Amino acid sequence: MEDESVVKVYDSKKQSLLDRIHNGEFMKIQAPMVRFSRLPFRLLCSRWGTDITYTPMIMAAEFNRSEHARDSDFTTNDLDSPMIVQFGANDAEELSAATEKVINHCQGIDINCGCPQKWVMKEGYGANLLLHPDRIFDMVKTVKRRMNIPVSIKIRIQPDLNNTIELVKRAESMGVSWITVHGRTSSMRSSHPVDYEAIKLVKETVSCPVFANGDIFTLDQANEIKERTKVNGVMAARGLLMNPALFQGYKRTPEECVLDFIDLYSKYGDLHPVILHRHLMYMLYDYHNRNEKSEFNKIKTVTGMIDYIQDKFIFS
Ligand SMILES: Cc1cc2nc3c(=O)[nH]c(=O)nc-3n(C[C@H](O)[C@H](O)[C@H](O)COP(=O)(O)O)c2cc1C
After folding, report:
1. pLDDT of 116-130, one tens digit each?
2. I need a labelling partner for 156 at 20 to 30 A (CA). Which of 65, 122, 178, 288 fits?
3. Which of 45, 106, 113, 115 is the catalytic position?
4. 237 is in an annotated binding site
5. Are residues 259 and 236 in the same domain?
6. For atom 23 of ligand 1, which residue has the closest CA?
7. Residue 32 assigned ligand-binding role
8. By C-alpha distance, which of 24, 20, 25, 31 is closest to 213?
9. pLDDT tens digit string along 167-193?
10. Which residue from 193, 216, 183 is spatially nearest to 49, judged by alpha carbons?
11. Residue 271: which domain range?
């Protein structure tokens, strides 16, 4: 019986995210990004205008089996909300088990159905699921039946849009809470234009909320896409890496935002120094000329990076 299989009731804070979306609040969302969308970056985006953040893709099977994977892949705290845990999964039991482990620490889970990387596709995850949609439906249906938590999917469009339309209709009938559409096919590079008309078609097809993803680098673009597609929210990845305050209308990362990032990193860690360096390279992109870029590139230590930022923005 369905009632018996509801293993946990989620709290009112989680309920309110779905309520907010259904009440018509337009959501500005930080995309899942492997290695990058970890705790300090999620907190930074939340502070600077993002309504929902996503963890990087976490492989459900490994997460279930290895305590080490759980410790290294997932760190959170009370400020980290509303936050969605994105799983790489292709099996309903694995996804359910992984969801149970995070259900009290997030406001929803998402299934990655769009990653086109070779190894991900080969193992039957990410965009490979678009070729085996029954696996997606089974995962959505099973987790929704067993647990009271929003379950969303993040997809890419398919070369034949009829397949996308069929997929989103069935996902909706399985109870998916919302659908994020990256308006490129799996074989398209990030330089390929995004098909916003396809996203609009998805929005017109289903009644569940739809979020648009792809090539959002400014607030104006976000608003334009909102008008054009009538979606419930927009999700940005590279735009937020370059400027975590983009949804507040800033044209480049504000100095205080870079300092906030250093502060959050100092408090919570959870980033490999190489990734900290990459984050700072992105945020400082518009501040640096070519020489400064190569000067910053030479810095290898965390203290070196922090000193550099403080010299640039506090003591200069
Ligand atoms: C560094 C990086 C890591 C990414 N990791 C993930 C991921 O873990 N899960 C996922 O669904 N998409 C991932 N993506 C794809 C983004 O979420 C997004 O769909 C894509 O970059 C298009 O959005 P954009 O044009 O705003 O960058 C990643 C993208 C980047 C740039």
Report:
1. 999 999 999 999 999
2. 65
3. 115
4. yes
5. no
6. 214
7. yes
8. 31
9. 999 999 999 999 999 999 999 999 999
10. 216
11. 255-313
